[in-house]
């Protein structure tokens, strides 16, 4: 297994009773990259997410996180591995009765023995890195805008300095302008903190803007993989139709991505490895 692959799935199947939800998933996430897992409702994205973070076991197959096969692990070992993941949930999933300070400090309370002043200092440092200040500490989630809630949720996910951040439908329910600001935040976080970003999404526009590589899941199978441009112009009829039905302007998003990344707008060919 190449050392630059931090999450690897090999021939992963998952069934619930007679229903086979995932059918032989092979994929690999490289360190420091952003991978998008794209698909419609019922495609198997949520099941895949649960398997990767060890909340469920595959029916068969192997799942490696940072070189360790998590499938045979017991709950104690899995809890250790789960600390390598920071989770940013749909709608941020903040605790309504907790202030920003208490929301962001929650992982420190659960997993460290830091004093209250030490936790406050670490929370302030992480919020500052994400563009929020001390004035936000005493606010409650209901007092925050959608974009600010996402930043607070991301700060909480980063508190234990995980090497991998998983975003579960991060732009769901947001207007287009806020969605694009979340895309910028995901890319900024990848660059600033050096994390591997795994984004579970149905938002193909977001995929075009932030993904180094992407996979498209349909009916529990990977039907296309590569760069976002590969999905739009590759050999998979399912992928081309998915992109077409999304109504996005591929050329405009490619230029916008180049501006976001500061890269040449010309698409680069994908490498012939697992997605």
Polypeptide structure, described:
There is one protein chain. This protein has 275 residues and is an alpha/beta fold. The protein is built from ten helices and ten strands. It has helices at residues 45-52, 75-82, 100-111, 116-129, 146-158, 176-193, 204-210, 228-233, 237-246, 250-261, and strands at residues 5-16, 19-30, 34-38, 60-65, 68-69, 85-88, 164-168, 196-201, 213-218, 221-226. Strands 6-7-8-3-9-10 form a six-stranded mixed β-sheet, with helices on both faces. A four-stranded antiparallel β-sheet has the order 2-1-4-5, covered by helices on one side. Helix 5 packs parallel to helix 6 and helix 7 runs parallel beside helix 10 (250-261). The model is unreliable at 268-275 (pLDDT under 50).
List the helices and strands and how they pair.
Elements: E1 5-16, E2 19-30, E3 34-38, H1 45-52, E4 60-65, E5 68-69, H2 75-82, E6 85-88, H3 100-111, H4 116-129, H5 146-158, E7 164-168, H6 176-193, E8 196-201, H7 204-210, E9 213-218, E10 221-226, H8 228-233, H9 237-246, H10 250-261
Parallel strand pairs: 3-8, 3-9, 6-7, 7-8
Antiparallel strand pairs: 1-2, 1-4, 4-5, 9-10
Helix pairs in contact: 3-4, 3-5, 5-6, 7-10
